[in-house]
Amino acid sequence: MAAEIARARSSAFHRVRQRLAEYPEAVAFISFLLIFVFFSLANENFLTPISISNILTFGSITGIVVVGVAMLMISGEFDLSVGSTFAVASYVFALTLNAGVPPVLSLLLALLVSLLLGAVNGLIVVYTRIPSFIATLGTMLAYRGIARAIGHGKFATYKGEHLFLFDVLNGSLDWLNHLFTPPAIFRLSIVWFFLIALGMTYVLLRTRYGNWVFATGGNRLGAYAQGVPVHKVLLVNFMLTGFLAGLAGVIQFAHRTSVDPLRGAGMELIAVAACVIGGVLLTGGYGTILGAVIGILTIQMLDQGLVLMQVPIQVFQAFVGLLIITAVVSNRYLARFAE
Amino acid sequence: MKSRFILAVFVLSLLAIIAVACAPAATPTPTPVPAKPTEAKPTPTQAKEMAPTPTPKEEKPAAAAPEEKRLKIIMVQHALCAWDSFWCTVEQGAKDAAAAMNVDLTILGPDKFDLEKTAALIDQAVAANPDGLAVTVTDPKLFKDPIMRALDAGIPVVGYNAGSGPEKDGIPYLTYIGQDEYQGGYQGGKRLIAAGAKKGVCINHQVGHAGLDARCNGFIDAFKEAGLEAEVLAITNDPAESQTIIDDYYTAHPDVDAFLTLGPNGANPFYAFVEARGLKPGDILHGTFDLSPEIEAHIKDGLTLFGIDQQPYLQGFGSVMWLTLVKRYGIMPALPVTPTGPGFVTKENVGVKPQPDKPLKLMFVQHALCAWDSFWCVVEKGIDVAAKQLNVDYTVLGPDKFDLEKTAALIDQAVAAKPDGLAVTVTDPKLFKDPIMRAIEAGIPVVGYNAGSGPEKDGIPYLTYIGMDEYQGGYQGGKRMIAAGAKKGVCINHQVGHAGLDARCNGFIDAFKEAGLEAEVLAITNDPAESQTIIDDYYTAHPDVNAFLTLGPNGANPFYAFMEARGLKAGDVIHGTFDLSPEIVAHVEDGTTLFAIDQQPFLQGYLSVVTLTLLQRQNISPALPVTPTGPGFVDKSNIALVKALAGTYR
């Protein structure tokens, strides 16, 4: 009798586990919920407009970068240069604006440069067949050098009048913020982030290109055999990643209006961490944008929650580390059932 | 079997998370500092030069922390709580500070107003050989000899409540802790102007009284600076007569809309005049010194914008605190006068009762951390020591590398935690303005520390900036050199155009000008050899210059090279410098360098905690927009202590 119950239980457990395995973002979602519930219960200031808007506003900038990195990782490649591209785009935007270039042109220039930096990554990986981890490790340093060189190692601060373009890129959502007392800090970057994430989800799940991305990451030889333009997919994904990193850079600049030589450093690893927490496999071919989005929001939520809990800032990184390990272990545990 | 193992790992990690979360705050243990001085990171609007941390020469023995050594402090005052209730607040402040700071406190005073007896008490206190002595300098002439005997015995002395500062009193005690009358009038004037004043009058009930005149002068200067007019109106001690004088004045000058009274003796006739005329709150602006039941009632009904309090609690608290800091860490009060007032009592804080045991949660957001910039270990030590003494919870937040964007985000994250007080390095006023404004709008008291220029220059209405006063550094330094015999001075500036360094030179030159002497700026470069030549050539052309101020190691090192090359000895010329470095410390010890000026980073952290805590618990507001932590002079008198504590407290 007892054995039967145990079997029934275990089969129920198996079913749940199998169901969960169908969703790459399941673990991310569960850990998100667990952490969310924990902070909500543990600290009375967590479920407040300020704290929630902090998480979304600060998370959305890295989030835009994460969307690109997730696409790239699903196609089986890394980009460690996103933080540097982020800085280069901010500098190009800042310096051209200060030089009197029309704002829209400045923006296009900054985005074009990031697209080019992404293309360089793609070309190196496709034509030299160096692993992208190594190739973009190199360009991470090289692009950082570009940012420091064009900025002469100094801060670049926008000196002109407030631009309407800044409001378009990352205006404060005052009508929303002033619904609360004290006011929240929701910004337009959140909207851009979710639109980009939705768009990329659509591309990934509903278009032929999306299929190519999965094929390229999952089984590259098979993809070649089936006529998937693997090189083109990789090149486009690298360009997309660079573009989104640059876009995130200018969006942040539109809010802060200054950039420093180290801006964005460390962002590349946070982006990879978000993807990994979100269930994107390092080996490619498996994962969702939604998972990566949940991943970055979980990290940002942890960041805010630990401040509220008055945890010493020295151990913040330890928490993110534990989160990553826990998520990967759980993901692998589930992934065995997905096969 | 395998899945069980994975499950166990999962549970264990969760447990580990919880364990870490519940662990007590990890205290950063500052390791001995490498010999390379840590330079401040560049900031966009202003690059504040930070003092390089001196290197501890050898491993210090694991001695007890300076806080654990019990100190004996004696206060001698001309009145006592027992027969003058004003003094109960002073004594309470002193007792609270003594209890928090591990100090044995004795308060001495005569049984009635008796200055001769008070002077005798000072001598009796000196005989007890205390670690520190605080004295009301009620009669500088009478008290000079006893105070000099204390100073000669090596006892640190501060003045409190009564006095005019060491210079005016002619007694070289450390600092006077009390109301700054001029600033009271000046800051009061500014508040009235901000509220819309167009023309002001200072109603003085005792023209000729130095303190009251200083208040009016400050008031008039504030108006002049704003391009507005203000004047003094003399009234008498007769309320009815005074009311008539004010009324007649108002008839003759109906355009006057701002009135400052200097105490109840001015405020009461003013209230009678307002009532007789049928004026309403809003028709005119009124501010006053002191508090009384009438004044408090009118602050509540909006007629009176503010009452200026000298904050007696802070006079007692500050006396014990400063003597403790001097004795334990060699930390010096920055200025000859350490103001406890003007403390503004407004509609927001009138009648707030002290809550001495209120639990507090403070947050600090700074652009660097001890973890990667050893300068900040000293600041964080100051925060930690003060928080433990005052029993408050605190969290220090900062980015993992120099990252102002992340720092700005951390301010917002800290605001979400609704702390009882927030201290922020105002490294980039433009970038930090919005987050700091959100904190202020959320009702969180905010102070700036280490980096910033004060609420006015930064354009952010935080309470006060706790950091180095660059101009005063040069000015006080110049005065010391003049006292040591300087005839002609030169300020050796290694980065002309840097606002902070230029301010130091301006202060230095002003001190010489005031003494009727000459001084000028000499620009050098960052190339030591070239700089040495420039200094050498200058000395050849101006052999009569005998006082040299350098603005940091970048100036001091080429200067030392110049002295050596020229064969100049200690005593041939007078040298003072900013900052501490191993070379500078060595030259202060051998007498070549008269003093080194320190921004006292420990004090930046310490005073941030004290300021926010006293505000929340005792309703005490900072007196001035800038609360200077420096110039902290390091000279032969405290170099040994400073050297011993380098890297942790200094």
Question: Care to describe what's here?
Answer:
With 339 residues, chain A is an all-alpha fold. Chain A has one domain (24-338): ABC transporter involved in vitamin B12 uptake, BtuC (Orthogonal Bundle), CATH 1.10.3470. In chain A, 75% of the residues lie in helices and 1% in strands. Chain A is built from 15 helices and 2 strands. A two-stranded antiparallel sheet of chain A has the order 1-2. Chain A is globular and about 80 Å long. Chain B is an alpha/beta fold and 650 residues long. Chain B has 4 domains: 67-174 and 312-340, Rossmann fold, CATH 3.40.50.2300; 181-309, Response regulator (Rossmann fold), CATH 3.40.50.2300; 361-463 and 601-630, Response regulator (Rossmann fold, 3-Layer(aba) Sandwich), CATH 3.40.50; 471-598, Rossmann fold (3-Layer(aba) Sandwich), CATH 3.40.50. In chain B, 44% of the residues lie in helices and 18% in strands. In chain B, the strands form 4 sheets. In chain B, strands 2-1-3-4-5-11 form a 6-stranded parallel sheet, with helices on both faces. In chain B, strands 7-6-8-9-10-12 form a 6-stranded mixed sheet, sandwiched between helices. In chain B, strands 14-13-15-16-17-23 form a 6-stranded parallel sheet, with helices on both faces. Chain B starts with a helix and ends in a 6-residue tail after the last helix. Chains A and B meet through helix 3, helix 14 and helix 15 of A and helix 1, strand 14, helix 13 and helix 14 of B.
Strand content of chain B: 15-25%
Order of helices and strands of chain A: HHHHHHEHHHHHHEHHH
What gap, in angstroms, lies between the N and C termini of chain A? 32 Å
Structural class, judged by helices and strands of chain A? mainly alpha
Largest interface by Cβ-Cβ < 8 Å: A-B, 43 and 49 residues
User: In oligomeric terms, what are we looking at?
Assistant: heterodimer
CATH-derived architecture of the largest domain in chain B? 3-Layer(aba) Sandwich
Count of DSSP-assigned helices of chain B = 22
Based on CA inertia axes, which overall geometry of chain A fits? globular
Instruction: Give the total of domains of chain A.
Output: 1
* Total count of domains of chain B: 4
Average per-residue pLDDT of chain A, rounded, comes to 92
Q: Enumerate the strands of the largest sheet of chain B in spatial order, edge to edge or round the barrel.
A: 2-1-3-4-5-11
Q: The CATH topology of the largest domain in chain B is what?
A: Rossmann fold
| Molecular shape of chain B | globular
Strand tally of chain B: 24
Count of helix runs of chain A:
15
By CATH reckoning, the class of chain A would read Mainly Alpha
